[in-house]
Amino acid sequence: MGEQLSQHTTLRLGGPAQELLTHTDPATWPDLAHAARRHPNPPCTLGGGSNILAADAGYPGLVIRMATTGISARAVGDGAVEVTVQAGEPLQHLVRYTVAEHLSGIEYLAGIPGSVGAAPVQNSGAYGQQIADTLTAVTAHDWRSGQIVHLPATSCGFGYRTSRFKTEPGRWTILAVTLRLTRSRHAAPVTYQHLADTLGVPLGTRPPLAEPVDGVLADRRSRGLLLPIDGPDARQVGSVFLNPPLTPNQAAMVGASGGPLNRHDSTDGRQIVRASAGWLLQQCGHHPGQRLAPGVYCSTRRTLTLVASDGATATAFATALRTLASQVMRQTGIRLRPEPVMVGHHI
C-alpha cells in the first residue's frame, strides 16, 4: 500500500492510499489522468486536507494531491478584473494577492484554510461572502467523460456550503478557478455585527480593503476559528456541522430559547432560516474541552470544533459526530449534517 493519508490531512488521521500522486505542473495533467486509468475506482482529490476525514483503512485507489500554483489576471472592463487561479494555490495566498492588487470580492474569506480548488466544492464562505459570489467558471477534469471541461458558475449547483462537485463525489477534479473581482480600494460593506464591532465601524461601512482582512483574522482568532499550527487544538477541521435549516416551528422554538438565527435567500429565492449548530450542541450539554471518544475532544475554544489527540482514530471521530447529531435530533428534532468530507470506506 502507499502513503498514509494522515500525512496529508489536518486531523492527521487516515490510513494508506493505494497510490498517491502529487500534481504540480498543469502541463502534465494529461499524463496524470492517463495514469489514473490503472485504477478501477475514481480518484480522490486532496488539496490542503483541512476539511477531510480519511478512513483508518485508507483509500482503495488513486489519491491526487493538487499542488499546482499560479495566479493570472486580466482587465475585462468597467473596473472588473478576471482572476484565474490554479487549484493548488492556498486560498489565503489568493486573498492576500487580491488585497495587494486592490481587488474586492473575497476579502472576507481571509482565514479560511485550504486550497482554491477546494473552495468551490464547499462553496466556502464567511462574513456574508462566499466563493460563488464572484466565481465565473471552473476548469475541471470530468472522470465520467474523460475530458477537461469548463463549467460556468450557473452549472456548478452552488448552495449553502455545497455544489455539484460535492454532491457528485468522485466525478470531478477541479484544475483551476476563475473569479470576477472589482478594482477598488474599499471592501464590500460590513454585514456582520461582531465584525463591525471588531473593526469599530457601523454596519454597512465599506472600510479600506486591507482593514477587514485584519479584522476578520482578529475576530476568527478570538472565537477559535483559525486553524492553529500547534497546541491542543491543532488537529482539527474547523466546524464539524453545517448550520441546519429550520422549519417555521423549529425557528420559533430556537428563537424563544434565545438561540441565534441566520436568514438568507436560497438560489430559488426562498428565505431560509438556520440555527447555530454550535449553540444547539451547547443546549444539549456539550462544552469546549469535553472528551467525546478516545482521543476526540471538543476544542478548548469552541464546542463546534472537534480535535484529535494521541490515540484518536477516524472511526472514533466519526462515531463522535454521529453521537452528537443523534443527541441534537433526540432533544430538539433538528438534524445536523457533518461538514467534513469523508474519504474511504468503513467510517
Automatic annotation (TrEMBL):
This is UDP-N-acetylenolpyruvoylglucosamine reductase. InterPro entries: FAD-bd_PCMH (IPR016166), FAD-bd_PCMH-like_sf (IPR036318), FAD-bd_PCMH_sub1 (IPR016167), FAD-bd_PCMH_sub2 (IPR016169), MurB (IPR003170), MurB_C (IPR011601), MurB_C_sf (IPR036635), Oxid_FAD_bind_N (IPR006094). The active site is at R161, S239, E339. Residues 13-184 form the FAD-binding PCMH-type domain. It catalyses: UDP-N-acetyl-alpha-D-muramate + NADP(+) = UDP-N-acetyl-3-O-(1-carboxyvinyl)-alpha-D-glucosamine + NADPH + H(+). Keywords: Cell cycle, Cell division, Cell shape, Cell wall biogenesis/degradation, Cytoplasm, FAD, Flavoprotein, NADP, Oxidoreductase, Peptidoglycan synthesis. Pathway: Cell wall biogenesis; peptidoglycan biosynthesis. PROSITE patterns: FAD_PCMH. It comes from Microtetraspora fusca. It is an enzyme of class 1 (oxidoreductase). It is found in: Cytoplasm. The gene is murB. It comes from the Bacteria. Cell wall formation. Belongs to the MurB family. Its cofactor is FAD. Its EC number is 1.3.1.98. One of its GO terms (molecular function) is UDP-N-acetylmuramate dehydrogenase activity. Gene3D superfamilies: 3.30.465.10, UDP-N-acetylenolpyruvoylglucosamine reductase, C-terminal domain, Uridine Diphospho-n-acetylenolpyruvylglucosamine Reductase, domain 2.
